[in-house]
Amino acid sequence: MLSYLAIGFTIGVLTGVPIGPLNVAVIDAAYRHNFQRALAVGLGGATADGLYATLGILGVGPLLDRHPNVPPILYAVSGLVLLVYGLVTARAQPLAQSPEVPLPAPQTNGQHISAGFLLGIALIVLNPAALVTWVVIVGSYAAGVDTYDGIACVVGISIGSFSWFLLVAYLANHGKRMLGAKAIWITRIVGLLIITYGLFSLGRAVHYVATNGL
Fold first, then answer.
1. Is 88 exposed, middle or buried (0-12, 13-18, 19+ CB in 10 A)?
2. 171-189 confidence digits (pLDDT tens)
3. Which of 71, 77, 155, 170 could connect to 128 by a Cys-Cys bridge, CB 3.0–4.6 Å?
4. What backbone torsions phi and psi does residue 186 show, to the nearest 5 degrees?
């Protein structure tokens, strides 16, 4: 059981390393909002990773094979969501960070955290590449294991994934403090990256329809 926990942790960290929409969203949350918002985005992503890892253990690969039209639809939806999110991010201004400015009220801060958590979940759930990746990776390592080992693997993946996003959030928040007013250029770059991911997802959906039809 401990070995599956360790394996899951390692997989969770390694799959978070490639720069993707969630990494970019964590960086954006840290620069444009605060460290807590960035953590919430990362926690949402780690939760969704755990969900998809569970599906991988349950063996949903054959189900995807029987319904090949599902991933392209998700690519199209994901592309549209990322385009809108990227445009909003590129135009947004970072929140003022000043010792004289009082902290937000608990309710407002809670709403920001909830929104970040839901955003993290959405960026993973709407990404069919993430689903396929987890089905393939986890399916090859943990499909068919007993219940306790499977739970240990999923918990390890979630912890490993969140640990990576925690590191990204910390580094981004530290960088914002060093850059000061220049941090606005980071939000512009982040917005352009998200738009690029959105166009890529839409392109994959269009290519599938052009090649295979609906």
1. exposed
2. 888 877 665 555 566 667 7
3. 71
4. -65, -45
